[in-house]
């Protein structure tokens, strides 16, 4: 392990012990040992939705691959620790975090004011948008055209929140999925008339399958992807942010971005 990590471990554990002796002085000490724990364990545990290309999906050999995975693997390499990707139902992401089954949530976690009340956010690394995707050539061009239509959406995703808030009384049926890829399959097979999801996943899908799908012109909302940490895990969040900035300066993140998107979509440091 790097000398830098050993120094951080000793410092943070020392602060934790001091904190226990000075409970009334919250300005000087903190109970936060999130970074120290990861460094002592020598591993960062990351919760992911395992079927969400291009951020995280099967590599066909029993493992996982993707844009987010490459970024966090680079982070772990820089910190000289191991990384473990934990597949989970996206609706269980907060439960996994609070139960200490994972240290971080990745694979397309959108930052919202409501979510920021219950978790810590890393700096945004990807600008995204919530969009409506339909089959190419269909007579669905506007939000009004969704009246009496069946719309697919992933459970626990930002798209579902938007659908419930603004379109619930417009559409005929809301069909939910544990991951977004089965929704796209249903769209192709006419099981649903439209899907609401991240632009990121739709852009990847269109790139893979040609002009089978179309995205409606007006996005429903813009958002940014972040990595999420347990509320109060400020030391771990700050360290990850510092490493992300280092990797951006070294050109590592741009290389990862070009691998998956063909261009630099990273917004860190911009």
From TrEMBL:
Coiled coil: none annotated. Transmembrane segments: none annotated. It comes from Treponema pedis. Its main location: other. The keyword Hydrolase does not apply. Residues 43-263 form the Ionotropic glutamate receptor C-terminal domain. Belongs to the bacterial solute-binding protein 3 family. PANTHER family: AMINO-ACID-BINDING PROTEIN YXEM-RELATED (PTHR35936:SF19), MEMBRANE-BOUND LYTIC MUREIN TRANSGLYCOSYLASE F (PTHR35936). InterPro entries: Iontro_rcpt_C, SBP_3_CS, Solute-binding_3/MltF_N. It is found in: Cell envelope. Residues 43-264 form the Solute-binding protein family 3/N-terminal domain. The keyword Magnesium does not apply. Pfam families: SBP_bac_3. GO terms for cellular component: cell envelope; membrane. This is Amino acid ABC transporter substrate-binding protein.
């Amino acid at each position: 392990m790097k000398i830098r990590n050993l120094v951080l471990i000793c410092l943070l554990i020392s602060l934790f012990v001091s904190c226990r002796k000075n409970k009334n002085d919250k300005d000087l000490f903190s109970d936060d040992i999130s970074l120290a724990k990861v460094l002592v364990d020598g591993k960062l545990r990351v919760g992911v939705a395992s079927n969400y290309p291009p951020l995280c999906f099967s590599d066909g050999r029993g493992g996982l691959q993707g844009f987010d995975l490459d970024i966090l693997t680079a982070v772990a390499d820089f910190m000289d620790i191991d990384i473990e990707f934990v597949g989970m139902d996206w609706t269980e992401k907060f439960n996994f975090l609070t139960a200490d089954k994972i240290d971080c949530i990745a694979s397309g976690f959108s930052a919202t004011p409501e979510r920021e009340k219950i978790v810590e956010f890393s700096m945004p690394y990807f600008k995204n948008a919530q969009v409506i995707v339909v089959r190419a050539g269909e007579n669905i061009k506007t939000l009004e055209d969704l009246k009496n239509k069946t719309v697919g959406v992933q459970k626990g995703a930002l798209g579902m929140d938007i659908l419930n808030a603004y379109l619930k009384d417009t559409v005929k049926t809301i069909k939910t999925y544990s991951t977004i890829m089965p929704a796209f399959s249903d769209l192709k097979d006419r099981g649903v008339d439209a899907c609401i999801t991240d632009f990121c996943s739709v852009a990847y899908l269109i790139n893979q399958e040609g002009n089978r799908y179309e995205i409606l012109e007006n996005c429903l909302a813009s958002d940014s992807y972040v990595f999420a940490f347990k509320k109060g895990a400020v030391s771990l969040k700050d360290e990850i942010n510092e490493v992300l900035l280092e990797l951006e300066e070294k050109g590592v993140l741009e290389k990862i971005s070009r691998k998956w998107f063909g261009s630099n979509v990273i917004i860190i440091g911009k």
